[in-house]
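User: Hi! I have a protein structure encoded as tokens and I'd like to know what sequence might fold into it. I'm fairly new to this, so please keep things simple.
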């Protein structure tokens, strides 16, 4: 498999990724559409980070009334994990669900937090890439707060469109979703 297009493995060769998969005892799993990949909250504690290798997944929140809200869509390269993304609020359960034929690579938190015995340069690069992903996610959450803090729907749309135009580098941009 070619890992070059996945942000978490940026500047790490395929051979180095394969070596890390063996060294970290990572596991791969395939999920059919609609199948739960993992769940957080209600006393559940996953100790792994998941990387979407192929397909897509959705981060879904189920509140105490059973209302289902899609919080985020994760495409290939998307990373999820309880400690990385969120802390569920009381009564809520957050679940990662396959949105298509999805392949996920799981790695334990411990391998990200501790230096490996071999002091591999690619391990350090993986940790650096993870911090960059976290910084990007924090920026996106800040933008969401900025949009949602606007009073009217019109102001929210104008703010969102301004953010999209700035990211596109001009006045013309494509919306990242359909109607």
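Assistant: Happy to help. Inverse folding works backwards from shape to sequence: for each of the 179 positions I chose a residue that suits the local structure. Here it is:
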């Amino acid at each position: 498999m070619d890992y070059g297009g996945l942000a978490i493995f940026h500047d790490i060769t395929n051979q180095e990724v394969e070596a890390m998969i063996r060294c970290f005892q990572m596991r791969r799993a395939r999920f059919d559409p609609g199948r739960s990949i993992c769940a957080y909250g209600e006393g559940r504690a996953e100790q792994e980070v998941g990387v979407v290798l192929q397909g897509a997944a959705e981060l879904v929140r189920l509140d105490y009334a059973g209302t289902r809200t899609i919080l985020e869509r994760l495409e290939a390269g998307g990373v999820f994990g309880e400690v990385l993304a969120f802390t569920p609020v009381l009564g809520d359960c957050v679940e990662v669900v396959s949105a298509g034929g999805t392949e996920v690579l799981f790695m334990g938190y411990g391998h990200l937090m501790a230096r490996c015995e071999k002091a591999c340069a690619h391990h350090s690069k993986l940790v650096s890439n993870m911090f960059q992903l976290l910084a990007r996610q924090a920026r996106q959450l800040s933008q969401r707060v900025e949009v949602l803090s606007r009073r009217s729907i019109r102001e929210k749309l104008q703010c969102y469109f301004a953010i999209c135009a700035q990211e596109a580098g001009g006045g013309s941009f494509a919306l990242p979703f359909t109607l």
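A useful reference point when you look it over: The chain has five helices and eight strands. Feel free to ask if any position seems puzzling.
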